[in-house]
Design brief:
Elements: H1 13-23, H2 59-68, H3 99-105, E1 127-131, H4 147-156, E2 163-169, H5 178-190, E3 198-202, E4 207-213, H6 217-228, E5 235-238, E6 242-246
Antiparallel strand pairs: 1-3, 2-4, 2-5, 3-4, 5-6
Length: 247
């Protein structure tokens, strides 16, 4: 099945058919020549030798690495995804001469149908980032993952270093302003109290997103609850898998 998107002013069916046929043609296969090294292929007389011997891992560690590197079989995509939904140049009500000019003036990932342009012509700041610094060693403070979360990871074939996202909404802020929560969260990240974390505030949707490795997600959630006085449960989301855990 081939889906061809075309602009409203490009309605020549013959050209569109030729374009689609050319896109699905098989690429020519060329036989690659045999590789010939440009240096003496003598492994016993290397000009440079490493100062240290290579590291050695046990059989158990090798099996664990092999298990963690197994690709996931449960990756699913969104059936309703439309790559041209918010592109002005594909809208039928936009004239051909205005397409590129209007497309270049839109930079914000917002709904174009409901969004009004700013009055002064300047783009307002809709979101900000806070990125964690290299964190200290917190192994003695971080407990093993709960059994429920371990079962979910095993079921979805996710390893502990997958990135996950906690979402803070106004409903869990315990009568606090979302901007005040953002300021406190920035302070926690700068003080290296949230390992592997980076965060962003999405002011257009009224949310704060905290990204972290699954290995530290429960520890991060407990710190957020304690330091920011958050209430209710928060959902842990992983890209393409949705909500995998609630705490």
């Amino acid at each position: 099945e081939v889906v061809l998107h075309y602009r409203p002013h490009q309605r020549d069916l013959i050209k569109l058919q030729k374009f689609a046929e050319a896109a699905v043609k098989e690429f020519p296969i060329r036989q690659l020549p045999r590789f010939t090294p440009w240096f003496p292929n003598d492994l016993y007389r290397l000009p440079l030798k490493p100062k240290k011997r290579p590291p050695v891992i046990s059989c158990e560690e090798a099996e664990e690495l092999k298990r963690l590197s197994t690709p996931s079989e449960y990756v699913t995509g969104s059936p309703d995804y439309d790559c041209i939904k918010n592109l002005l140049e594909f809208q039928s009500n936009v004239k051909h001469g205005q397409t590129l000019i209007q497309a270049q003036t839109v930079h914000r990932p917002v709904n174009l149908e409901n969004e009004e342009p700013p009055p002064n012509g300047k783009e307002k700041l809709k979101r900000s980032w806070s990125v964690s610094l290299p964190g200290p060693r917190l192994k003695e403070k971080i407990l093993p993952l709960s059994q429920e979360l371990q079962n979910n990871l095993e079921r979805l074939k996710l390893h502990a270093f997958y990135r996950a996202k906690w979402t803070i909404e106004q409903s869990v802020c315990n009568d606090q302003n979302l901007e005040d929560i953002w300021i406190k969260l920035n302070r926690l990240i700068k003080q290296n109290e949230l390992p592997s974390c980076n965060a962003t505030i999405q002011r257009s949707v009224g949310q704060i997103w905290i990204f972290c490795d699954i290995l530290y997600c429960e520890y991060v959630r407990n710190i957020l609850r304690e330091k920011l006085s958050l209430t209710d449960k928060m959902n842990l989301l992983v890209h393409k898998f949705g909500i995998i855990f609630s705490l």
